[in-house]
Amino acid sequence: xxxxxxxxxxxxxxxxxxxxxxxxxxxxxxxxxxxxxxxxxxxxxxxxxxxxxxxxxxxxxxxxxxxxxxxxxxxxxxxxxxxxxxxxxxxxxxxxxxxxxxxxxxxxxxxxxxxxxxxxxxxxxxxxxxxxxxxxxxxxxxxxxxxxxxxxxxxxxxxxxxxxxxxxxxxxxxxxxxxxxxxxxxxxxxxxxxxxxxxxxxxxxxxxxxxxxxxxxxxxxxxxxxxxxxxxxxxxxxxxxxxxxxxxxxxxxxxxxxxxxxxxxxxxxxxxxxxxxxxxxxxxxxxxxxxxxxxxxxxxxxxxxxxxxxxxxxxxxxxxxxxxxxxxxxxxxxxxxxxxxxxxxxxxxxxxxxxxxxxxxxxxxxxxxxxxxxxxxxxxxxxxxxxxxxxxxxxxxxxxxxxxxxxxxxxxxxxxxxxxxx
Amino acid sequence: xxxxxxxxxxxxxxxxxxxxxxxxxxxxxxxxxxxxxxxxxxxxxxxxxxxxxxxxxxxxxxxxxxxxxxxxxxxxxxxxxxxxxxxxxxxxxxxxxxxxxxxxxxxxxxxxxxxxxxxxxxxxxxxxxxxxxxxxxxxxxxxxxxxxxxxxxxxxxxxxxxxxxxxxxxxxxxxxxxxxxxxxxxxxxxxxxxxxxxxxxxxxxxxxxxxxxxxxxxxxxxxxxxxxxxxxxxxxxxxxxxxxxxxxxxxxxxxxxxxxxxxxxxxxxxxxxxxxxxxxxxxxxxxxxxxxxxxxxxxxxxxxxxxxxxxxxxxxxxxxxxxxxxxxxxxxxxxxxxxxxxxxxxxxxxxxxxxxxxxxxxxxxxxxxxxxxxxxxxxxxxxxxxxxxxxxxxxxxxxxxxxxxxxxxxxxxxxxxxxxxx
Lengths: 422, 422
Hints:
The structure is a homodimer.
Chain A: E1 4-10, H1 12-15, H2 23-34, E2 37-44, H3 48-60, E3 65-69, H4 80-87, E4 92-94, H5 96-110, H6 118-126, E5 130-132, E6 136-138, E7 146-149, E8 154-158, H7 162-173, H8 176-181, E9 189-196, H9 200-213, E10 221-227, E11 230-237, H10 242-256, E12 260-262, H11 268-276, E13 281-285, H12 291-296, E14 306-312, H13 315-322, H14 326-332, H15 337-350, E15 355-361, E16 376-383, E17 388-394, H16 399-418
Parallel strand pairs in A: 1-2, 1-3, 3-8, 13-14, 13-15
Antiparallel strand pairs in A: 4-5, 6-7, 7-8, 9-11, 9-12, 10-11, 15-16, 16-17
Family (chains A, B): Belongs to the CinA family.
InterPro entries (chains A, B): CinA (IPR050101), CinA-like_C (IPR036653), CinA_C (IPR008136), Competence-induced_CinA (IPR008135), MoaB/Mog-like_dom_sf (IPR036425), MoaB/Mog_dom (IPR001453)
Pfam family, one (chains A, B): CinA
């Protein structure tokens, strides 16, 4: 038994890359949790012909469930409900009670925009109350209702904005039509191993050996990928293959134990957050421009240990706000180990912190020299109680890559220093 | 005449949302520039059956060109070349010279990892030299070569890492096979209008009127979307419909002139960058944790006007680093207009800046009160020569939404203040 699903993301703004889709990935994770196999994600613009072709493709591939996102708005390019109704062979009918509920919502929104013609807006929103006959209505979180159309496949139609889609997906899963469509789902286990400082090729070589050495290896579905300089190995398997996975993990530990930093799915961000509990951390940043502080404070509750940050982008700011000796900058350059160490010292003092991370580098595209080409980044982690680590790396990629990769390197250095036995 | 294309993004890590795809959007923009119609983007995992189904779907939809990304690596889950070869009815053949070139590249990479068994890695990389018979080889930028397989449709196979894919796409476009596949391309014009402070529904109402009032309206392909609080209207049309677009623009200006901030495709980031030329800007951030400074410094050359930033996440940091009077925090709370104004003052002084932006808010999920619920954010823009704007808003969404939306609001306030006639 199994249950397979497809996701259709609609919207010319997504197809043409003006907006990055967040719904496909989010729904993919929810399907994985449910034990539903995601086979395909397809993206089309606001053209009913292309959307209809994708629905037919997924149905022909035999998926049990199709989830669409987007195209439920009030404008003329929002055509998903009408296209799905036609695909499912159902008439569109006006739901007058739903229309009244939408009118209420719109009236509340319009109160904030006194200069806008509310009648015209209400008329534009009327089409959102047209529903395929026999479909289950998902109450709007914004102004757009969703629908669940039972059938083979069952189709769930959700709005594009993630904060509307997410609660409405939960309502959709509770409907009998969706429960029936995913009745064949299987519980899988999924384990993640994360490594830092290893080329993907080295892991590939290990997996080739594992294929020969480990009986039942083919029952593991393994995917590897590199992101932000980390190599990630994700393995999915049915619970009765747990012993096979254990053997694989033993082999990977033998070969790459020094590079593994996570076997339980935790990210380096989560590990650093745990290590920082009870401490006071500050950052001093140049080329990353605040990205490290922003990344540390992404985590709810980080106010418990993050004091703050100084972004000293200009050289005179390094002196004025972080007390870096200008002679140091003159002698070694702003991207140098002595300067980054002085920045960390300044951050410790300025915030009365006990943990500081400093970053200074050449993010590009300009500013590179033969000695310090674009991608050269200096790091310093300093603890009030003593240990200091200073490192210089040459990171690949463009300006955005170098900036983002630098925050990952900094977190790994911080993890390394904070997890040393004292 | 027209030329249509489809993009196939492969990789379980993308399908399951562990990695966000950057190649689909990037290729979509390149196709638009070329005048090639992008009809579909499809995403599948590392399963040859699903990939083959997507290739057949796109061919059946009549696209002239298919571009695949990903699945060219050394690991066993990298199967794109073999699957495309089978789809195109071509044998896989070993290219010995290509194999030697890949071995050279791998040897250079491996020199950085002395503990890794280089022979095993070379063996793992050998499969990357297997090429569909008669295909054009795209030289590797990383270790993986791409291929162009001529036919109907022509298939371009590119690697997953963006910094490898991008130069290799340019090489692919230059091949006779791709030039022939896109021979029917049409030049389109595309214009973008961006608005801030307008609900999408209001624009929808205007477009409904435009449909009735403007002759030839149907020759405009209009898409609207909301992102980061901005409403964006993108219109695509053939050059001979320029007069129709001009009429639409006149109507939109009449109705929403006060909210339009861009008619030439520029973003608020670019406009603020231009307005800041010759100035010295500093930010003082609490809930955004450095995101505004990071956003200002995303732009190459921003070191010309960005001094830096203080992220004062803890209340004592607001006092210690930005000289905010603790009595002010005690009286009004850290999220208040007096405190955010004091933070801006502190940033001006600390960095000897002439322009400061301060942000303090409740990003959530905790920390909300009945008076100041999650999403309450205070902003201050202060110029050394006088004008100060202070504003408090209630922003929708989760922690990440509130933080990101806050940076957009701050940029619009900055634009507003800096573009006032002095």
